[in-house]
Automatic annotation (TrEMBL):
InterPro entries in alphabetical order: Cu-R_lipoprotein_NlpE
Stored PROSITE patterns: PROKAR_LIPOPROTEIN
Signal peptide stretch: 1-27
Organism annotation: Halomonas daqiaonensis
Protein name (database record): NlpE N-terminal domain-containing protein
Pfam families: NlpE
Domain of life where this protein originates: Bacteria
Alphabetized Gene3D superfamilies for the sequence: 2.40.128.640
Keyword Transcription: no
Keyword annotations of the record: Signal
């Protein structure tokens, strides 16, 4: 039994030493792929049939701030004044915790230039939910959810 443990430990040490050395040829290192997640949904609207929202998040939670970008498109359906579609681009940050759940993950989308900052609670891997700037959920929270496409 002790010999097996010694052999396993030696093999593990050799494996870790090989990993620590890293690739010797830069071309041999695999390129990191950009991660893109697209979420869509229709939010309620007082004066129209709904607001179609399309949010594209580029980057990952672990990415550097400047690598996390977003595009947000909002279209008003059946609005009496026919407002133009709204398009925003900027960076997103990861915030931790809400009033109800200190372990929750919240994405803060801050547009470049003018525009409002959006806050989305990550309900699960497939669902984001619009929440208020104080990181609180709205009463009609299920109507404010976007699904990953």
């Amino acid at each position: 039994m002790q010999i097996r443990t010694l052999l396993a430990g030696t093999a593990l040490a050799a494996l870790l030493a090989g990993c620590a050395a890293g690739p010797t040829d830069q071309a041999a290192a695999p390129a990191m792929e950009a991660t893109t997640a697209n979420y869509q949904g229709t939010l309620p609207c007082r004066n129209c049939d709904g607001i179609d929202l399309n949010v594209t998040l580029n980057g990952e939670e672990q990415s550097a701030d400047e690598e996390r970008t977003f595009d947000l498109e909002a279209s008003y359906r059946g609005h009496p004044q026919n407002p133009p579609d709204e398009n925003y681009a900027g960076n997103w940050e990861v915030l931790e915790g809400t009033e109800q759940d200190p372990t929750a993950t919240v994405y803060e989308l801050t547009p470049d230039g003018e525009g409002q900052t959006y806050y989305f609670l990550r309900v699960d891997e497939q669902t984001l939910e619009l929440i208020d700037p104080n990181l609180r959920r709205f009463q009609n929270s299920e109507m404010l959810q976007l699904r990953r496409m």
